[in-house]
């Protein structure tokens, strides 16, 4: 049942429109810093754009997708009207208000501090308060997901929670807790300084707080895509999910181990000692487990679909897959990019290898491949799959959708492979200008040009995506069957309590976070001698 | 499919799945052991201790006072380099070091967050104001390396490029004989 379609569509439309705007900025940045363009008369424009691009792509866009998809899952997987619709609109309004409040100072050049904040650089307080409002809006969604699951459980005692909802709620709890790090940094450290109530700030402590958010936020971005792997892809290609239990375990593992590993983002930092860096590095390895499990389960599910369609042979079944189906295509592209990106991730994960590429263009190449590539292409798939159910209209053309997905995939590869390469050559990131005539950067010129070409392909693909969704409005209304998720080969009749509820895992998540973060944070907080004067940026002072 | 067949295939599925899960865990454990081994055995561990320094008093006195910046030969044959980053340059802007010598880079920031990466090497550290970064280095070959700032430090970040010049060990020793702090600024 999809009763509150307007609510869900509002989230998706806003998400995709801001995504389109930020995509234009991304392509512009790519061009500006390439050899195709000379020195920008005012480099501040570049950092302004980068702050907007990062804030939208990192915070606003994925949060809106997770929220909209979460409401859709709650209504259709539980077959229950959303409880607390009014609150959902309040949450949405807070996200809108926050996004506007953050973006106005950024556009005016009052907050060109980049989406990672990194004090003692301090911009306009409105930027930070805006970001906080976006997060608070999303916390309303977290609460609603939990309330809706509770209401359903009351009405269905002992029944297995549908997998999509189980995963969705796990993702929402992960987000609630991971956002706390940045929230503490903003509320306790940055905003008082931005408002002028304080003039010094501990930059090292701020980086530790931010790392609390920075790693697990990646899994918050990724969970809608994983939900789509497990609960949309098998159904869309006429197959079944290989294992419901393994899926639950994968999501639980994300919930538990995504959090206590963020200090790997401070491997090169002086404010954290070697001991905790090692602990976090070891835990980081663990987070590969749920992805390895997912790769297996999804490949097996796809094989089942192929064999149901008459495919046979060791690999011959691959030909029997419905390749004309956009969801099949998106899933495949996503897996390929996840494979390459995962291999890169293993490199970032080890302290020793990381020191060769830390803060080089390798990093930006890496997260564009994983996030912009593997994850966002599944956001497209989710939209394509849900759209007819939300609008009551078919999408105009399968071929157009396939073209769009192909372009995104090719564009991502063309953009990010050279991007990784110049990173290995030691090209630093986040710069408005590179002097490609100097010997140190000469070798980067051609790869960066290739990346820029990829950026153009991505931009075309992104605009095509928006066009396809908008065109659906012009199609005649049709009767659309109820929205369904994949069934498991062996649908669970009953599920052990631990795999049917989140309490135990939340306790573990919080416990491990405290174990892995408590000491470094306590030590840094207790110091009074490590705070430094704020450095204000922008035109406001 | 009969109930019996379906039951058998469920068993097979569960078995294959369990095997894969075991393999996954083994991969992870092996990787963690390799990392621990590399860290402890090959001594490529991050700095052990956290050290504090007041960025607003750097230039007045203490380790990072202007006269103390640059490279100095230590009694034990190693070299210590002291440097600071500020918007938008490094001091010294050109760091002079000998080849084939263990070097300790001690650096901090006078204002905002910066970073040091020596291109073509794995020398890479953040400079966080308030804290001292301690980084072991060693260059096997002589030559010039660029050393850009690798973290956004406001609107001049794109112009913040330093240099490292690695010279022959004997040349360095000769220049170090008179004491003082060495650099290659202005050469
Ligand atoms: C047309 C496609 C895109 C292009 C050409 C592009 C380009 C760029 C560029 C040039 C940067 C600055 C990197 C630097 O200077 O270090 C950047 C940063 C960023 N991009 Fe994209 N991008 C695109 C799509 C995306 C997508 C789809 C996402 C995720 C949904 C994304 C997320 C980010 C984030 C979070 C940052 C901030 C990184 C930072 O501040 O260092 N981008 N992008
Ligand atoms: Cu991380
Ligand atoms: Cu910089």
Summarize the structure.
The complex is a heterodimer of chains A (541) and B (187). Chain A is an all-alpha fold and 541 residues long.
Word description of this protein:
- The complex is a heterodimer of chains A (541) and B (187).
- Chain A contains 17 helices and four strands.
- Chain A has 541 residues and is mainly alpha-helical.
- Chain A has one domain (5-536): Cytochrome C Oxidase, Chain A, CATH 1.20.210.10.
- In chain A, strands 1-4 form a two-stranded parallel sheet. In chain A, strands 2-3 form a two-stranded antiparallel sheet.
- In chain A, helix 6 crosses helix 13.
- The model of chain A has no long low-confidence stretch (mean pLDDT 93).
- Chain B has two helices and ten strands, in the order αββββββββββα.
- In chain B, a hairpin with a 5-residue loop joins strand 1 (70-73) and strand 2 (79-86).
- Chain B is elongated.
- The N and C termini of chain B lie far apart (83 Å).
- At the A-B interface, helix 2, helix 6, helix 9, helix 10 and helix 12 of A face helix 1 and strand 7 of B.
- Protoporphyrin IX containing FE is lined by residues 23, 26-27, 29-30, 50, 53-54, 57-58, 61, 114-115, 364, 368, 371-372, 376, 429-430, 455, 458-459 of chain A.
